[in-house]
Amino acid sequence: MSRPQNPHRSFFPFGNPFRMKSPKSSNLSPQLLGILNAFEATLAERMRKLMPKSNDEILSISWMVLAMESLCETHNAIKTLITDLDLPVSDWDEKWVDLYLDISVKLLDICIAFSSELSRLNQGHLLLKCALHNLDSASSKQFVRACSSLDGWRQHINSSNPRIEKCGSILDTLLGSLDLPKVKNSAKGKVLMQAMYGVKVETVFVSSVFSAAFSGSAKKLLDLPVADTYSWAQSFRSLQNLVNEEIRVTFSSGRFTALKELEAVDSCVKKLHPAIQGGTDTVETESLLKTVEDFGSATEKLSQGLDLLAKGVDAFFQVVLTGRDALLSNLRSGGIVNDRMPGGNINSSFSP
């Protein structure tokens, strides 16, 4: 993971070019207003659930799993809202369709990047297991082999992932999609666009946090301004301020990762390495056994967490993909557009 530190990154360094104001809802019928209010109330509740109870929870893998689950729920909720609105895809404005398709393909690319990083981190687990195997013996020769495995892990874990490096440019592109398209003569369209804005804000926020965590740098963190006119604005700002500030503090302190479970393993490695370096037989057995035990526990916790998070990212990928496929299918059946992207899976790539 790279370790460059960067100044606080403003969402818009030269001011906000977009006027992210909530569409006026005074002209909505009670039924449409009820649908929108219910959606936004649930969105606010999801954001409150993501509020860490302590700073130690921020960027723990368990928190990241919850964040992915929240995104899946939010993206599924927008599908339900569209059904409740009874707004056929054939009635969608062309710019809405283009916006949705453009955002979805970028989200798929981001999922692929996150999946590749989780796979890379899991590959390092093999080196940790090898080190643990050699630490089972008190042999000086085995200590040398364990030391070699730990060195290999450090080198592997500090390498960069080109896919993650590209996430910054993808996120920058997604920023422009936060602007609300103008909706004329369609109350249902106004509800859809306002709800979609909430979906996009949560998605960009979580993606930027993951990108910062995986890149080992706070430069990819985004600070999204949300108008008070949104009922979920305060919940979102509280979440964003707490999480982003803690990540920036973490990297400013010189730590190479903000991932709590990965940091725990690294801490154990730093204790083990000097204790067994050179295959010395003079280490304190009781102290070494305790360090090895902690190392084994931290390694297993990291591995299990990475597996759960990988499943979460894959689930989000599938939610986005099925939503995109459903839209394209509806558009084709109406003779409006041709499918511009074949179906795929988490291991495929949609970007050159």
TrEMBL record:
It comes from the Eukaryota. This is Uncharacterized protein. It comes from Bauhinia variegata (Purple orchid tree).
